[in-house]
Design goal:
SCO4226-like, DUF4242 domain-containing protein, Alpha-Beta Plaits, 90 residues, alpha+beta, 4 strands
């Protein structure tokens, strides 16, 4: 399945409490259960005002559907074409 990076612009996100982030994660998981096995959340990175999420999904529209059902922004959904890391140089 293709892999995607989702950018979610959420002002002040970096100041969220662990409880707030847990609640968002629980909502995301509930929606993922509805869309299973077509969408899988790998992990997310929280910055001051943006969350970057990595998903595996059948297509980008399913990623957007997850966002709609969960009430999350999905400001940009980009398909990952390849991964580059330090081992790429070897």
């Amino acid at each position: 399945m293709p892999k995607f990076v989702i950018e979610r612009e959420i002002p002040g996100l970096g100041a969220s409490s662990p409880e707030e982030l847990r609640a968002v994660s629980q909502k995301s998981n509930a929606v993922l259960d509805e869309l299973n096995p077509h969408v899988q959340w790998i992990q997310s990175y929280v910055t001051d005002d943006t969350m970057y999420c990595v998903y595996i999904a059948d297509d980008a529209e399913l990623v957007r559907e997850h966002a709609r059902r969960g009430g999350f922004p999905a400001d940009r959904v980009s398909r990952i074409r390849t991964i580059v890391d330090p081992t790429t140089a070897e």
